[in-house]
Write a structure and sequence with these properties.
Number of strands of chain B: 6
Distance between the termini of chain A: 17 Å
Number of strands of chain A: 5
Largest sheet of chain B: 6 strands, mixed
Number of helices of chain B: 5
Largest interface: A-B, 22 and 26 residues
Distance between the termini of chain B: 10 Å
CATH topology of chain B: Mannitol-specific EII, Chain A
CATH class of chain B: Alpha Beta
Oligomer: heterodimer
Structural class of chain A: alpha/beta
Order of helices and strands of chain A: EHEEHEEHH
Shape of chain A: globular
CATH superfamily of chain B: Mannitol-specific EII, Chain A
Number of helices of chain A: 4
Order of helices and strands of chain B: EHHEEEEEHHH
Helix content of chain B: 25-40%
Radius of gyration of chain B: 14 Å
CATH class of chain A: Alpha Beta
Number of domains of chain A: 1
Shape of chain B: globular
Chain lengths: ~110, ~140
Amino acid sequence: MKIVGVSSCIAGLAHTPMAAKALTKAGEKLGHEVKIEQQGAMGTIDEITLDEVAAADVVIIAADKVIENEGRFKGKPIVRVKIGQCVAHGEEVIKKVVAAIEAKNKA
Amino acid sequence: MIVSEEQIFLDSPLKDKKAVLQFISEKALEQGVTNSKEQVLTDFLARETEYSTAVQEGIAIPHAKSSAVKQSKLYIVRLQQAIDWDSPEFKVQVIFAILVPKEESGTEHIRILSNVATQLLEEEFQQVIFHVKDPQSLLKKLNIA
C-alpha cells in the first residue's frame, strides 16, 4: 500500500521527526511505501507532492495542531492519529490504517 | 556544543518527574543556559500538561521552548530507578531534556536535536543509553555531528 502523511507537534522539536521516522520504519518492516512530511521547527521536510497524493491509498495525519496545506489531500481517505501513538506504536498504527483501508476497499 | 559531559548525569537518585525537571532547570542556571530556572521549570511543566513526553518504554523527552533559554542544550539524565512520568503506558528511566530559545527554528541546533530524537527509536541506541557506563562513551554514540 502507498501511504503518505504529515507529522506536526506543538514545539516541532521531537515528536514531529520521531513520528515520521517511526511510521516510515514501520512501513519498511511491513512492506508498505510510507512517506511522511514533517512540519516542525526545521520547516517542512520531505514535502508530499501532488503526484504522491494522487498515487497514495491513504493519508495519515499525525498532528496536535492544524497542519499546513491540508487541502491537497481532499478526496483521499484521511486517518487522524495522535502523534504520541505514532511515536510509541508506529507498527500498530500502520497495521490498523492498512486494515481499515482494505476493509473499505472490499465494501 | 549542544551537549557535553557536563550535561550528562548517569544513575541519578532522583525519585519523581518534578524533581528531575527541577534538577535540569537548576543545572541550566548554573551553566549559563538560562537566567531563570523558575521560568524554565514552568515551561517544562506547561509542555507536560499537553500530553506526556514519555515516548517509549523507559524514555522521556521533556522540552522547553522558552524565552528564558539563551542557547539550545540537551540534558541527559539516567535514573537509578524507573519513575512515573504521567504516562498511562510507560515508566521512565532515561530523560533526554531539550532546551531551545523560543524563537529558534530551522537552525543547525534544531537539526541536531531532531537527529538525536529520532535516534531514540533505534533499538541499538536504546541499549546504549540504558547500559552505558560513562558520559564519554554515551557522547561517542550520540548522533550530534
